[in-house]
Write a structure and sequence with these properties.
Dihydrodipicolinate Reductase, domain 2; 25% helix; 5 helices; globular; four-stranded antiparallel β-sheet; alpha+beta
Length: 215
């Protein structure tokens, strides 16, 4: 959670706003692991953190998010983590927050009904088409490619103009409390109310000149 969690929890609070509390179940699956990357490839290390986490987040607007993070399963390299938002009028699929870009897709009930039906006789022989009926929707905001220093540039602009920068400490503190509260919930066997608060910041504004941020 403390490694990959910041990408996904930050995306959740930016999409859904302030969280009220969390519940979680965590475990340490293996007491030892073998390092598979340089420069310590092949070395055995003792595991002293939980590596398997399943959690629920309750948001102030009433939404409930489920999150699952682990290093203990086999997953295809390069495969996108599923990040879906289930709404009253459809389902939204957003790109993996651990990447820089990707399509945003929307499924509405009428589109699902119009999707081509698969032959039940073939379903056992072919991989399921998860996104049948989904439509890619246009992006409203810029900076949808590798913009690694964008947060730093926004902070510099904020310091010069006197406004709050977007990746501010309130966001970071709120995300950190959410992540650490999962293990606390597991240890106490209880729902953990959050003490921090957070107000979503505005998306980046479009500007016809790249490298020139909003005033």
């Amino acid at each position: 959670m403390m490694d990959m969690g910041p990408y996904y929890v930050t995306a959740l609070v930016q999409l859904l706003g302030e969280a009220k509390g969390v519940m979680g179940m965590t475990k340490q699956t293996f007491p030892h692991r073998t390092i598979t990357s340089a420069p310590h490839y092949g070395e055995d290390i003792k595991v002293d953190v939980d590596t398997y986490l399943s959690g629920n987040i309750l948001f102030s607007n009433g939404a409930i998010a489920q999150i699952f993070t682990t290093f203990d399963v086999h997953y295809a390299r390069g495969a996108q983590a599923r990040f879906e938002v289930f709404g009253t009028e459809g389902t939204l699929v957003v790109p993996d927050p651990n990447t820089f870009d990707g399509p945003v897709m929307l499924l509405r009930p009428e589109d699902q009904a119009a999707a081509p039906q698969t032959d039940p006789a073939l379903e056992k022989k072919t991989a399921p088409q998860f996104y049948n009926g989904y439509k890619e929707i246009p992006l409203l905001y810029d900076y949808c490619v590798n913009s690694r220093a964008l947060g730093l540039a926004d902070m510099c602009k904020a310091l010069r103009t006197g406004r709050e920068h977007r990746a501010n400490y309130q966001q970071q503190r709120h995300v950190l409390e959410i992540m650490t509260s999962f293990s606390k919930s597991c240890k106490e066997g209880a729902y953990i109310p959050l003490q921090t608060s957070y107000t979503r910041t505005a998306p980046m504004k479009n500007n016809p000149m790249h490298g020139v941020l909003d005033d």
